[in-house]
């Protein structure tokens, strides 16, 4: 085994760690509970893919309140003050668009597979 | 400050505005703003009163429930604003609140706000909600308390002292990525309301979000406001008042004067500065100079209105 082969897993891990923040904008997660942050007037990740039956939790990390309101009317949070959260369980597959009703440019998507 | 009232030049008054401390008077005569140093007007109270009959006071963005670093005591700053209003030499008949009464639409916040407002000497209060007032799941906390005047629609009109007032709502139909919206139903109602009204009737329009585009990336505007302005074009004197952006911005377009008011709670950054339109933290001693109320007077009844902005500093 060459030195390069020996180092490859480590290099890959380093690359993944470096790219992590970029990849997180369109995360794919199959866990039961996933968190979307509201920070600096953005949802992060803006697009999130979860398995049907997953619960998504939004947490507000801004000094300004935010809401999580589904375009279709499926879910609607109250105003979340700093560090407050809202959760919703996505039972069926589909694409769900939502936005903050206080700052409508803050928009995101949950893709349920 | 000199006791005599010098002719303040536009340049001089704007320079005074730049200091931002005492505030500036904006006289509107024949659709044109003439800024006058407020300290000059205030130094001669009888003279200031003689400049116009007080029509109403505008108060905005009280954000009861807010307690962050930008202002940990919004109750105290609202109380100081109420003191400013109560101390006016001549009480206006009306007070208009242009929204964001509360920070989080919570019942306790609305209750506290109403309790604080009850200290106002002004007896008649008109309101329009801000987007912070309508975040409760059923959008009912605001309307249960303030919805009666509009039959829970959020928009209505009334007349006072020969002026026709339009209370509009533009915070209920947000489109993702978009601006505030009046909506076709409200615009149709407006057309009916204005139909047959003499073009010489002075109009005062108020809503929470600006009815002109100030900064679209932050949603500081109303998408279908041009349809509203089209309906108001024929009127000789139109004054458009908003809150929402927690700072004074104004412009004059033909016979229409646009003015956004300060908050009584906390300032916000100038458009585009920082991540978004959140609370702006300023040194404690500078805060009172950035909070305040707007007084609107009839100067030459009924054709011109004058706007005075007063800080609580």
Q: What labels would you give this structure?
A:
heterodimer, A: 113 residues, alpha/beta, five-stranded mixed beta sheet, four-stranded mixed beta sheet, 19% helix, globular, B: 313 residues, seven-stranded mixed beta sheet, six-stranded mixed beta sheet, 22% helix, 22% strand
Outline the biggest β-sheet of chain B.
7 strands, mixed
Query: How many individual β-strands of chain A?
Result: 9
Count of alpha/pi helices of chain B: 8
**Average pLDDT taken over every residue of chain A:** 80
Order of helices and strands of chain A: HEEEEEEEEE
What's the alpha carbon Rg of chain B, rounded to whole Å? 18 Å
Structural class of the helix and strand makeup of chain A? Answer: alpha/beta
The low-confidence runs of chain A, each spanning 5 or more residues with pLDDT under 50, are: 6-26
Helix content of chain A: 10-25%
Mean of pLDDT of chain B:
83
Biggest protein-protein contact in the assembly: A-B, 21 and 26 residues
How widely separated are the two ends of chain B? 17 Å
User: Which percent bin holds the helix content of chain B?
Assistant: 10-25%
Strand order in the sheet with the most strands of chain B: 2-1-13-12-3-4-5
Largest sheet of chain A: 5 strands, mixed
Quaternary structure classification: heterodimer
End-to-end separation of chain A: 41 Å
